[in-house]
Amino acid sequence: MRFSIKSPHLRALLWPGLLGLSLSACSSLSSLAGESFTLEGELPANFSLKAQAHYGVANGCDGRSQAKSFESGFQSDPQQYRFTIPVSYREGLCEMRLARVGLFIHGRYGDKDWQQTYDNGDLVIVDKLPEGAPTFQSNGTLTKQAECSWLFKLSTAKSRFGQIDKILTCKNAGAHLVHTELSNKVVSLSFRESADERPYMNGFWLKTTIGWKPCTGRWGTELEELCTEPPQFKTFEMNGRACTVYPNCTE
C-alpha cells in the first residue's frame, strides 16, 4: 500500500526524523572502519620493507578479496618504519576482514638495478595460536627480530657474467596473530643485517685467512666449481676490478 503526505505541515515535521534515520544507517555502515593494528620496527641501511595486507569478505556478501600495500622505501642510513594496517573495514555492504600480511624485505648492495633483491616474510592471521608461538605482552606489544644474511655467488647472467651476485635470506621474518586479539595492538618486527656473508653453494668457495676464494678445476668451466684437493682457484670481477678473494678483492 502506498501513501503520500499531502500536508506541507506534516511533511515539515516528518522529514527531519526520516533524514536522521538515514544518516544513522549510513553511520552504522562505516562503524567498522578504524579497527587497525600497528606494524613497526627498525630496518638496516639500504633496506626497504613492503607489507601487503590481504582481505577477504567476512559477511557473505557478493564482494571480492582486496589488498592494501604499505612501503617504507630505501634509505642510506638505518630507519624506523611504522604502518597502520586495518584489521577490518566496510566496502559498501561488504565486511572486509584481514586474512594475512605478506612481507617483502628488499635489500640493495650496490647502485645498479640488478644489485637489489628481496626475501619474503608473513604475518599469518589465525583463530588460535600454534603451540609455542609468542603472544602479546601486557602492554599490547609483540616483539620479534629477524636476521638477514647475504649469500654470494658468481653471476651466470650474460650482462654480468662472472661478477659477484648476492641473494638475501631472512630468518624469523614473521609471526602468527589471532584476529580477535589484533585490534589496537603493536607488532614490533625489526630486521638485523648479519656481517657474516657466506657462499650460496657449499663447497664451491674455500675460506682462507684472507677471505673466500672461488674454486675451479674439476670440469674446467668459467664458473665456480666444487673445490678439489689440492684446490685450484679462479679470478672474478667485482666493481669493475679483477679479484682473487672476497670481500677484499686482492690478497
UniProtKB/TrEMBL annotation:
<protein>
    <recommendedName>
        <fullName>Lipoprotein</fullName>
    </recommendedName>
</protein>
<feature type="signal peptide">
    <location>
        <begin position="1"/>
        <end position="33"/>
    </location>
</feature>
<keyword id="KW-0732">Signal</keyword>
